[in-house]
Specification:
By secondary structure, the protein is α/β, with parallel strands linked by helices. The protein has helices at 25-30, 44-48, 53-61, 78-91, 102-114, 188-207, 214-236, 241-260, 265-277, 281-312, 319-337, 353-360, 364-367, 376-386; strands at 15-17, 37-41, 65-69, 95-100, 126-127, 137-141, 153-157, 163-167, 175-178. The termini are far apart.
Amino acid sequence: MSIFKPFTFDTVASIVAEWGAARRLGEILGAWTESRNLLIVTDKFLHTNGLLDAAKASLQQAGFTISVFDDVVADPPESVLHDCVGQARAAKVDLVLGLGGGSSLDIAKLAAVMIPSNQPLADLYGIGKVRGSRLPLVQIPTTAGTGSEVTNITILTTGETTKMGVVAQQLYADKVILDAELTVGLPPLITAATGIDAMVHAIEAYTSRHRKNPISDALAREALRLLAGNLIAACEDGNNRLAREAMLLGATLAGQAFANAPVAAVHALAYPLGGHYHIPHGLSNALMLGPVLRFNLSAAAPLYAELADVLLGPSNATVTSRATRFVEFMDDLMNRSGAPRRLRDVKVREDSLALLAHDAMKQERLLQNNPVELREADALALYKKAF
């Protein structure tokens, strides 16, 4: 008899974790690839505030030709991707680098696929629909939250309030560079929201009904330990190097975990909040985490108890007691982080909760992973608890 069920674990090919790595980016990439015509995918704030300057100088010194696409926005629509691909083709780029938050990294992933391809975007949505290869791809996150740098998923806004995803092995990057120095400028609220987002990834991967495995479990536990142990320090002192490094590594480990053991109801309920109210993804997850943890408690208690032992130390208490302590610990941590805690605090209208619940039911890809079956009435009840 096997000690575990058969499983597959996939992740990126290479990770470089180094404070200040962006300052010697040309050296790092120059030793790795012969490609020299580089597209940087980012947003205007990072570009105009100088966060790219040291990296660009290093790249130029190493002989790279650089094009910058800086029109990425939160919850990017399809038009942003098409504009990015058009600019890249015109510049004849042969290497793509995503630098920024999850939206920039998502656009970079899919652009690397589409630049050399004639496959229409509409044909890519879903799981495993991408044909052929892509351009070499490097990812550098500047927030410690989404884990997008190590996932094989891109989410695009496809309508006024709807989102669709592309999931494919080709979206795993060739190289990820974790430079926590780039996260030093994150304001406390963004630090809190993105940090909680990463913790949601770890928790949902650990409790996922499908594809949960020993490697994803180990990554989720360590991610949660790093994130929970350093979130408040990072929020209180944005220059705390140890806290920033721990948060960035924790977010990446959580990303590796949920790329293999998919997320569930917290994300399913968060997406309509982003679609209808343009609430940042990390904050949407933070708002829904508490109610969903309690909803799942009946089925997930043994796993919550294990996570309590990671965060609070081993205990001889009952499974139910330890699981309850875990939920209470997470609530307290979110309260201390300073992130908004109620839907009403971010101007969600009570009369829209039924519409949000209806839209959440469209996230079947996520809801099937939840430890407890969730119906539309349950979704409405959870939004009401979060309101």
